[in-house]
Amino acid sequence: MVDLILKTVWFFLPTGIANLAASLSRFIPILGVPVDFGRSWRGKRVFGDHKTWRGIIFGTLFGVLTFLIQRWLYRYNALQDISMFNYTQASWAIGLLQGLGAVWGDALKSFFKRRINREPGVSWFPFDQVDYSIGAFALVSIVYFPGWAAGFMAILLGILVHTIFNLLGYALHLQKNKF
Length: 179
What we know:
Blueprint (H helix, E strand, L loop, with lengths): L1 H10 L1 H12 L15 E2 L2 E2 L7 H21 L3 H5 L11 H23 L11 H14 L7 H24 L8
Antiparallel strand pairs: 1-2
């Protein structure tokens, strides 16, 4: 079980970093244009103002950068032991798809959140906690399938880590809601 947890955390690290980078990009004053350009569908915003091109770009970029750092760190035996594959032979597309999957998984969840009249920032458990993990798992599986056990573990860890980061963000006054 510990081996699965370590391998899952290491494999999905670009996913988590992409999600965090997209969220923290709100402090960067460029590219704050909503992904939906303010458009509505059936009387409701497609994604809302909180899903911006800035978040998509920074989240995806940090997913790729995290993967490239993992590739560089793969030289260490301890990291080879918790890796699902040989990073030196793997395509950077794994990091790209994890980053894209994380940010677009979040955007897709926001689409459905708008459909049921949930306001931005209001928790929608467990979807707010797993959207990025599911999105990344779906997209990265195009080029590398980490297995159902790792996918399920990523969802469980996503709930735990997302909750911890939200509590930390709330304590640091970076966000208004605890969850």
